[in-house]
Automatic annotation (TrEMBL), chain A:
Native organism: Blastomonas marina
Name the UniProt record assigns to this protein: Exodeoxyribonuclease 7 small subunit
Compartment list: Cytoplasm
Catalytic activity, as annotated: Exonucleolytic cleavage in either 5'- to 3'- or 3'- to 5'-direction to yield nucleoside 5'-phosphates
NCBIfam families reported in the protein's UniProt record: PRK00977.1-3, xseB
Protein's UniProt keywords contain Nuclease: yes
Length: 82, 490
């Protein structure tokens, strides 16, 4: 059973996907009581939406690190490798 | 030099060593001072060996605090001391260490103070690939013994990194290949830490970049990468040497962020590769390991969504069926309720009837309680009879009254007879004093100034003998008869 339910918004994509797959397994196992299966479904949907959001937000951003005199990263500038 | 040395004329010992050295004719070689010969030797050596290349094995390598490097070069029969000044050491492309076969270039010189000769190395290179590989193997053994390359140290890469840190040259095909493949698979945020990837200083830069990425605080202004790619294109073992340096291997092994290494071609394996969490055969492959294919993931997630809907739907359908099956077996609501409804009706009827009955009995009792005039009249008659029965008979009063009246009349007659003036009619006189008080004794009469004699028909005043009538009463009582008469009537 999904006893601990961390906040989905805080979950990494990987954790959310794994949780979604867990939900899937339980639902497809068919041994979850009906009312629980609806809760599970809702959670699964939230996880799916979270994952989807992450996929939708994917965009390219290429930067180059700028360092200070001691070699620490202090910022970035756009990088054009061409 | 003494011109005439003593004993010189007495003996000829030209061929035998004398006790004292002396200058002779034909002796053109003056003895050198040590410094002279040392200086000459130094000049000779430096002139003759101003530039030599020596191949040998390094031994006794020691780097002084000053930065100079001291060592020996040796082979199986000989050794020569070597020194490398700091400026040259800084240009070394590898870390000199004992046992490494090198080719050192420089000049020979002497150290007169200690009767030494040595080579001042200006350049030093590893003596061929074989030697380099031997050095690599040695370093690998050493670091491996420390556990730097242990399988347990390897971390799993994140499935979908938010930010990817790349340590490589900012120009060239390597970074282009990586960025292209990343963009194809999953458009990502990439931060490139530019380094030189070949030659002197490359190892230090690569190590510093790996450590620099690890030093970025999570949640700070700079995004901290979730995975690092350390990459370099193919090249000779020399070209790749920077990635075999201990400093690079250590930085990668100690990186708090998982590292993918992609150095050289598939056949080249550097210490960086051994230390990394995952080794990619090429930079492109590193990009593939770093991120999943977005479309695949999207497909998988969408499939999960469908399957989850389907699975939930099945559960719900199953539930519906079971519900329907049970609902059929349920008795219908009317038949369940009927006995209660009947009972309710019954009770309602009883309630109604009970109420009516109660009202009726109440009314009857009320009617029974109603006051009738007859009753009142009856009571009144009775009371009147009782009252009549109680009526006083006049006789009860009149009888005693008559008796009392007679007694009273008798008493009155008696009183009449007993009146003191009654006897007056029969000739008696009542004698009173002037103030009207009845005198009953002669003594009283003698003391009185005036006597008033009351007859039945009037009063006559008299004055006892010897007494004069009281002045006050004189005028009124002086004429006893006429006046008396008048008084009596007046």
């Amino acid at each position: 059973m999904a006893d601990e339910k961390p906040d989905i918004a805080e979950m990494s994509f990987e954790d959310a996907l794994r949780a979604l797959e867990d939900v899937m397994r339980k639902l497809e196992g068919g041994e979850v009581p009906l009312d629980q299966s609806i809760d599970l479904y809702e959670r699964g949907e939230a996880l799916r939406a979270h994952c989807q959001k992450r996929l939708d937000a994917a965009q390219v951003r290429i930067e180059k690190i700028v360092t200070d005199s001691e070699g620490r990263a202090t910022g970035t500038v756009p990088l054009d490798p061409e | 030099m003494p011109a005439n040395p003593p004993f010189d004329d007495t003996e000829d010992n030209s061929n035998a060593p004398g006790l004292v050295a002396s200058a002779r004719a034909g002796d053109n070689a003056e003895p050198f001072s040590v410094s002279e010969i040392s200086a000459q030797l130094k000049r000779t050596v430096e002139d003759r060996f101003g530039f030599v290349r020596i191949r040998g094995e390094l031994s006794g390598v020691k780097r002084a605090a000053s930065g100079h490097l001291y060592a020996s070069l040796k082979d199986d029969k000989a050794r020569i001391d070597a020194v490398m000044w700091r400026g040259s050491v800084d240009r070394l492309a590898f870390q000199p260490e004992d046992g490494l076969e090198v080719v050192a270039s420089g000049k020979l010189t002497t150290y007169p103070g200690r009767s030494n000769y040595q080579i001042v190395i200006e350049r030093m290179e590893v003596a061929g690939e074989g030697a380099l590989l031997a050095l690599l193997e040695k370093t690998k053994q050493r670091l491996g013994a420390e556990g730097l390359f242990d399988a347990e140290r390897k971390r799993r890469l994140p499935l979908l990194p938010r930010t990817i840190g790349v340590v490589t040259s900012p120009t060239g095909s390597v970074i282009r290949d990586i960025l292209h493949r990343l963009a194809d698979r999953f458009p990502s945020h990439v931060m490139v830490w530019p380094v030189i990837v070949q030659g002197k200083g490359s190892a230090e830069q690569v190590a510093a970049a790996v450590r620099g990425f690890g030093a970025i605080e999570p949640g700070g202004a700079l995004a901290r990468p979730d995975v690092l790619i350390v990459a370099r294109g193919g090249g000779s073992i020399e070209d790749l040497w920077g990635f075999n340096e201990e400093v690079v291997a250590r930085a990668i092994a100690e990186s708090p962020i998982p590292v993918i290494s992609a150095v050289g071609h598939e056949t080249d394996t550097t210490l960086a590769d051994f230390a990394a969490d995952t080794r990619a055969p090429t930079p492109t492959a590193a990009a593939e390991m770093a991120v999943p294919v977005r479309a695949d993931l999207a497909g998988w997630i969408s499939e999960l969504g469908q399957r989850q809907r389907a699975a939930t739907g099945r559960t719900i359908d199953l539930g519906k069926e079971r519900l329907a099956a049970r609902a059929e077996r349920l008795p219908d609501s009317e038949s369940l309720l009927q006995p209660y409804a009947q009972r309710l009706d019954e009770l309602a009827e009883r309630l109604r009837r009970g109420l009516v009955d109660r009202a009726r009995t109440g009314r009857e009792r009320l009617a029974g309680l109603r006051l009738s005039p007859a009753v009142l009249e009856g009571h009144l008659r009775q009371a009147r009879h009782a009252l009549a029965a109680q009526r006083l008979a006049p006789q009860l009063v009149l009888g005693p009254l008559a008796r009392r009246r007679e007694s009273l009349a008798a008493l009155a007659r008696l009183a009449e007879q007993l009146h003191p003036d009654k006897p007056l009619a029969r000739g008696y006189v009542r004698v009173m004093a002037g103030d009207g008080a009845t005198l009953t004794s002669a003594a009283g009469a003698r003391k009185a100034d005036l006597l008033r004699l009351k007859f039945a028909d009037g009063i006559v005043d008299a004055v006892p003998q010897g007494r004069s009538p009281p002045a006050a009463h004189r005028p009124k009582r002086a004429k006893p008869s006429a006046a008396g008469q008048e008084d009596l009537f007046g």
